[in-house]
Protein 1
Amino acid sequence: MHPGPPPPPGYWPRQSPPPSAQQLQGRTLAAQQEPYPYHRRPAHRPRLRWVATPPPGAWPRRRVVVPERYSGPPSYPVPPRWGFPNLVWRRPTSVPGTASDEVRPIDRVPVLSRSLIGILFAFAVLSVVAAGAEIWRYVLLIQGREAALNRAVVAFSDGFVLSAGLLASILALLPAGLSIWWLLVARQAASDASGDAPPRPVWQVLVGVLVPIANLPMALSIVGELEHAVLGRPRDVRPKPSRQVLVWWGAWLLNWVLLGVTIVWRFRDDVQSMADSVVLVAVTDLSAAFLAVVTALVVRRFSALLAPSDARAVRSMRVLKVAGAPEPELRTARPSGAAR
């Protein structure tokens, strides 16, 4: 017989452990002759299982993956077709087909306040310009007492006064209408927030704001009641207007009194009365500008108290509570491969 091939380098024959008593008993039984009949064999015959293990170095080694070097963001030869839709993110304020589909008064307050504040400041600037035109006319009247005036300068002054006064009078209707609308919406929003009905009906609010003589004392009560509701004070406590509301009411009284005096003074036809009416119109325009600025500040303060979570002011948002959502399914067991 020829010897077999030499073993590979690193090979070491596997040493089997010594046989156990059970194995020895099985070998003894196997060496004996089976009695007749041959199908009767021992009930507890040992079972042997041969396990083959690969020698060391038989498994292929794992390839070491070298990390690729970062070469910048990806670039494409053509614009990719995937991506986010070309839409503007907005707050999910309503769900179609549900009760939330209706716009609430508290949602209208920020929109109305932003529009109203911008229009009020624009009206204030225009009123100051109209007052400057009236002051220029009064200066020309003083100069005309001692010397002749240039016709072009007088014509330009008259056109300037007429244009500025007409624009200020027309533009005054827009902030007045928006202010009343904002007042009604803010009253309803404050009522919804507190859960109480408004202290007075809508027709009394309109009478207390629009009727010339009745609006002088009632305007303070209406705005004071709105401030009382916005601050969340109890209804059984008497409203106490703040200093800002009192300043607004003073500007309101001054503007209406000057407007009435100016209208009455214009019916006089002597020269001095006409010159005095120019001064009264200039002062009335300045008071209207001051009233517009104070009204804008009041509207901004009340709107901030009603809707403090403005989208422009809030940067980071957190979910504090989820209402109406089903309970999450709790996990009874943790999978073996799940990350902690």
Note: The two ends are 64 Å apart (CA to CA).
Protein 2
Amino acid sequence: MTDAEGKDDVRDAGPFLLVQPLPFLLSAMSRNDRLTAPSTEEVRRMALESFAAVTERLRSNIDSVMVGKASVIEMMLVALLSEGHVLIEDVPGIGKTTLAKAIARSLGCTFGRIQFTPDLMPADIVGTNVFNQRTGEFELRPGRLFAQIVLADEVNRATPRTQSALLEAMQENQVTIEGTTLPLPRPFVVLATQNPIELEGTFPLPEAQIDRFLVRVRLGYPTAEEEGELLLRFSGRDPLAELQPVVTAEELLAMTEEVNGVDVEPSLRDYIVALAQATRSHPALELGASPRATLALYRTAQALAALRGRRYVVPDDVKYLLPFVFAHRMILTPQTRLRGLTAEDVLAEVARNVPVPVAKPARA
């Protein structure tokens, strides 16, 4: 096989190979080169197997710290593979910060932690120009946002002015410092924690900022068995301190490109749009899902399908993701809140009323 033919084979295999082939796939292709060139479907199958192996390695590493949070870990991986930001919202002591740290330490990415407080200034997280007396020039001192994985702990304790400094970074992967726009590294993911119970000394996140979080997750209390396992696991040692990176930044970017190649049938695209439209006209809602939420549901459905070993999205993927992607973006009417209903309750009704498409997947 000539060099040109080899390049064509790689090009046909999809974007996963163009960014960073995984070692398993490289060795498999080198063995095949000595015999016969693999077909496009064979290469795609090998890519999916490599994808599954890497994601399972990442999942197992995080699971060694977190107890009984398989669904939450899966949703965090969905966000990572979609290059989206996560709002981790729950009461104190549940493990929000531990989860974010476990994810950051499992990835071979640069990491920055920002503890949000009322006296935190925008320059503290974005950066500023500092005068260097030795050179007689101003030099950029980057803020803590210049990292690939950023933990924004207790994000609702900062003032609105500081919270607004996150908007440009979260949406456009860039920051502006004194008129100069600087790009942020890739991947760039913000993992923000928030306590929804304690209101003293907090500043509610504006809707524009909440809308920039791809998903919102809640950990919930563990069962009695899980809490017992937690005592054993953390007795005398800290598993988080022993955690080592198992996935590089290059591998993570490669997997995000593979996710972009997951098939979404036209009928499923229409289904996603219909769900978003239904929230905007629902009488229980003052504000429905935004177009950004529609795009988020599309992207996360692709990531979830890939995580579950498929190259195509099914309606159950979309329905499963609805509360994670849409709920935090919607505003209930006062009457709905008085009735004790939640955004998740309204979404369950929306899902029941919007017809589910019946179509065969484009590729098994």
Note: Residues 1-37 have pLDDT under 50 and may be disordered.
Protein 3
Amino acid sequence: MPGRSLYLLRLRAWFQVAVIAALAGAVGRLYAYTLWLWGQAPGAAAAVPPAAPPPVPPLVEAFLPGQALAGARVWLAGHGFDPVHPAGLTIFLAALAMSLLARRGFCAFFCPVGYLCEGLNRLGRRLSLSRRPGRLVSTLISLPKYLLLALLLWFVFVQVAPADLAVWLLGPANKGAASDLLRPFLAPSANLLIPLGLILAGSVLVPGFWCRGFCPYGALLGLLALFSPLAVWRDRKKCTYCRRCTRLCPARLPVHEARRVSGPECRGCLKCLAVCPEPGCLTLRAGYGAGARRLPGWVLPLLCALVMGGAYLWAVNSGHWESPVLAEENRLRHLLYQQFQPALPP
């Protein structure tokens, strides 16, 4: 008997398709901006930029979690909201809030890297290449991301003073971070291709290779998710130990053995709940112990959407989405190009 909550799989797929479409549009706009920086806009002569630069889409700042962490530290120290990458900081804070409320909902519904790695592992399973590691190996695989997270937190919160971080946020390196995101991929070197190839190959062979092993962002969200009141509960009396939940879990958690699936590796994707064939065996609940209240499965993705949508609306209406600093930088760069354009070679 198939699971009665299969609509959750379709709901998650719609979420992910919408996020991928939005990011694809943002990356396309960033590509146009990168071409403008290099004087290679379509239809333009070499080294001659078009009449006006295309804007850098704020959404691409989601790929700058390191800058967002530094911006959060500066903001917490009372030095103001990051004026260079405000969208990145907004998305980062929304992801943190999401984890406290709805587990690692950002990883389950919004992260494009996790979506790609999950798809690669599905391919590995179809080709009979993917292997689920034992518990000891799984634990060892999980260690690097926590080490990377510890180093990042030590550097940002201990090693560097907030005032120095604030100066760095306004420096040229950070200002150019968003516009330079595509440069390594347009002219890739071995330093990029080798680790990228290892991550892609590892994702085919091992479930959750990147997310479980090397993503410090996911490690931080997982630790915060330990405080989330939402979790999937298993009724031992109704469980037939078919292990369908465990086999389809992206993190390969032993769901069929747990009473409350609440570890830091649980992304809150609800795949286990969707495919469970026994009515009432796996349920989404809020709270702890006997007082935990049963909720419909769609509550978790709805809560994630409300958190991210609310953060976006707040940022747009309060002026914390579009960067005034980058807009001014682009304007000055455009004026500089216009001034020296006659001297450029044809």
Note: The two ends are 70 Å apart (CA to CA).
Protein 4
Amino acid sequence: MAKSKKSGKKPKTTRISAKDDETFEKKEVREEMTEKKEVKTETKAEKVAEKDQEAAKKETAEKAESGSEKAIASAKAEKSEKKAEKCGFCKRFFAKKYEEQESVLTIFKQKKIWGALLGEVFGTMMLSMVILTLGLYQPLYMFFILLAIVAAVGKLSGAVLNPINTVGLMATRRISVVRGFLYLLAQLVGAWAGFLVVAAFMNVAAGISGTEAELPGMTMATEGYYWVVTFLEFLGAAIVGFFFARAWEARKTSLVTFGAVAAGGLTLAMVVVYLLSYQTFGLTGNFMLNPAVALMYQILPTSADGVSELLLEIVKALFTYVVFPMVGGVVGFYLADLADNFDI
């Protein structure tokens, strides 16, 4: 019998099973790693979902807050609108209606202010010369004269020419307070210059004719008619102020319209005051409707029974021909602002 040969090699089945074990182990490792990755992925997904939920919650909260803020803002806006509607009338009255930022330090740096002051001096001088010679009893003459003066100086200063109008412009904030005071000074200087010119001619005429020079007389209010004359000055000034305020904006587009309305207002005031004073009370020559010219007319008394009596008469004259006309002018300007709400 032949002997079987021994071999040192392992059986094939044994090697295959070892490989299978190794492969199985690797698979298990892979599966464990895959499971870990899946767990990590799930954890990440959960975290992302949580973050998304938190972000959504925050966004919802922010939207709610913004919505509430918008609601609060809209409510405040509605309240402010309602308040503005209620107070719009007051705001328009006291709103600033001029663009220039003028002060004592800056106004003289503008070249236009010198032209404006020159226009006020010249225009008021011409007006005072006419009033001091012709008086306020020729309304038609006064209309065309004032129209010519406005056309001449309107582009320079607005042809205010009257403290009644100046105070009204300041009170309704159509011009600055600084400009207003400069206009008042210019009007006083102009009225004084007109008075000097008229007085000089009258003195020369009086010297030639040998008579005494006299300006047109102005009847001072007696004790019984003091408040009548004072009210007439107030009423006439209110008419002048109303028409001038209505004409003020037209000066930028048409000087003819501006001059016609302003001159028409003064003419109407003269007619109304004259008719009321003469036809009702029989008074003549007792109103002026221009405080600057009135002061040049020597309305202030120079003699009385004692110093206290003289001071009292001076105060009464100032109230009648200076204070009350200016108050009337302010009332007229505010009435013009009130009328703006009813423009077509």
Note: The CA atoms of residues 26 and 39 lie 19 Å apart.
